[in-house]
Amino acid sequence: MSPSRCMFKGVLHWPNDTMTQLTYSDYLKVDELIDLQDPRSEPEEHDELLFIIIHQTYELWFKQLRHELAFLMERLDQDDVPRAFHTLKRVLKIFKTLVSQIDILETMTPLEFESFRSRLDTASGFQSYQFRVVEFMLGHKRPQPMQFQPEGSIGRELLEAAYHSPSLWQVFLRYLQRAGYTVPEDVFEVDVTAPTEPNETVQDSLLRVYENNHQLSELCELLVDLDEGLQEWRYRHVKMVQRTIGTKGGSGGSSGAEYLMKTLFKPVFPDLWDIRARIGVAT
Ligand code: HEM
């Protein structure tokens, strides 16, 4: 019998000799992966597995987002606009997936969630360090998320690194400057740990981009899509929270939906929203 080419490039799969060949399960560590769900309810509540798998899936997508956003910044630093476009489009598709996954969790009724909720103890998505890293990479910087990650932990390390690195917006502004648009130096001189603030000179430059640089304005529109994607996730998450636990407090110790409502409609790229009212208006 002749060997057949496996889905993994260059690996030959012999039907009668699987022991010595790389298999799908070996490569993807499937045995370990499907052993990582550890429901805490006793007897096990049916819906807890879904709750765990959804959250683990989110964490995997957050990892991929960190990977893609880092690559996007690197490509912009290298003035590699085609790859930056390509990567940004992939990031947007991941955000769409993050939002649509909420539909699955919303099939869980308040009663079904209540059946195992106490088992979550104080665990909450609020403590997701990867989500906070993504926020930091997009420029939503503040020191508070660090306090939930013990010194020396992986989460703390990743958060500190993202906190002390330029955000996607700062990297984009550097690119804008290299492309010949006025971006005041003080935008870069502020502490990288500061949150993104709107800037009038930047907005004037962005208006010029929208008026006469089609390719760059398309890139700006993708950044608006990304900003809207994060806001969309926050909105869908809060609606899911409201329909599942109503006005109850969160397991992470916050006021729950009331707290989450305050995080809505806050853009990460405020300049791109502020200019909208001026686009096409003669000055
Ligand atoms: C039934 C499902 C869910 C409920 C009832 C719920 C509830 C909550 C609540 C009440 C908070 C506020 C913090 C606190 O716990 O006090 C919160 C925050 C958060 N949750 Fe969820 N959540 C659910 C599903 C998810 C999923 C699937 C994810 C995906 C990772 C997630 C990620 C987050 C994040 C990142 C925050 C922090 C948001 C922020 O501070 O801006 N949650 N959640």
Automatic annotation (TrEMBL):
Pathway: Amino-acid degradation; L-tryptophan degradation via kynurenine pathway; L-kynurenine from L-tryptophan: step 1/2. It catalyses: L-tryptophan + O2 = N-formyl-L-kynurenine. Substrate binds at residues 51-55, 117. Binds 1 heme group per subunit. Coiled coil: none annotated. One of its GO terms (molecular function) is metal ion binding. GO terms for biological process: L-tryptophan catabolic process to acetyl-CoA; L-tryptophan catabolic process to kynurenine. Its cofactor is heme. Pfam families: Trp_dioxygenase. InterPro entries: Trp/Indoleamine_2_3_dOase-like, Trp_2_3_dOase. Its EC number is 1.13.11.11. It is an enzyme of class 1 (oxidoreductase). Keywords: Dioxygenase, Heme, Iron, Metal-binding, Oxidoreductase, Tryptophan catabolism. Heme binds at residue 237. Belongs to the tryptophan 2,3-dioxygenase family. Homotetramer. Heme-dependent dioxygenase that catalyzes the oxidative cleavage of the L-tryptophan (L-Trp) pyrrole ring and converts L-tryptophan to N-formyl-L-kynurenine. Catalyzes the oxidative cleavage of the indole moiety. This is Tryptophan 2,3-dioxygenase. It comes from Saccharospirillum salsuginis.
